[in-house]
Amino acid sequence: MKEKTNDGQRKNKMIRSVRSWHRDIGFLMIGLTLIYALSGIVLIFRDTDFLKQEKQVTRSIEPGKQESELGAILRMRDFKVTKTDGDLLYFENGFYNQRTGELEYISKDLPVFLQKITGLHKAISGNKSHWINLIYGILLLFMALSAPFMFKSRTKMLRRGIYISTAGFVFVLIYLLL
Fold it and tell me: Where are its TM segments located (predicted)?
C-alpha cells in the first residue's frame, strides 16, 4: 500500500514540476513569440516594397562586367539589362558603366531592426542565430506536449483541448495535401 502512495506522490510532484516549467517557459516565450510573429508578418510581404526604404547607392566595381556577373554582384534575382547604350547597361532602378566600373542604383531595404529580426526567422544551420531558432522550436515542442498536464485528467476542458489540438494538426495536413 505504501508503494502506491509513493508512486502517487511522485506522479503529483512530476505533474507539478511540468506545470511549473510550462508556466515559466510560457512567460519566456511571450517575448520570443512576439518577435517571431512580427518577423513572420514582415516576411509575408518580402516580395513587395512594404516597409522598405529607398537608398541611392553609388559604387565602383571592376570594369568590363557582363550582365550575368553584374546580377550576382548586386545580389538581384532575375537580374536583366533592360537597355544598352554604348558602355552603359541599364537595369531596373540603375545603371552600370562597363568602361569605368561606375555603378548606380536604388536599393530598397527594410529598416535595420526589421532586417535583423527577419534574419532570425530565416537563419540556417551555419548562422550563429540558428541556436535561437533551435531553442525556440524545442520550447514550442515542450509547450505543446506539456499542455495536457495543465488540466486535471478526465475533464471536459482537457478533452476539448485535445479535440482542438487534433483539429489544428489535421487542418495543416489537409492544407499541405491540397
Answer: 21-45, 130-149, 161-177
Closest CA to 128 of 110, 112, 116: 116
Task: Write the pLDDT tens digit of every residue in 128-168.
Answer: 889 999 999 999 999 999 998 888 888 999 999 999 999 99
- Global model pTM greater than 0.85: no
> Measuring CA to CA, which residue among 167, 132, 172, 165 is closest to residue 150?
165
C-alpha cell at position 123: 537563419
Of 92, 46, 87, 89, the C-alpha closest to 69 is: 89
**Neighbouring C-beta atoms of residue 30, cutoff 10 Å:** 8
Q: Would you call 131 helix, strand, or coil by DSSP?
A: helix
Q: What is the C-alpha to C-alpha distance for residues 121 and 44, in angstroms, rounded to an integer?
A: 12
- Which three three-digit cell numbers place residue 153? 485528467
Q: Is the pLDDT of residue 30 over 70?
A: yes
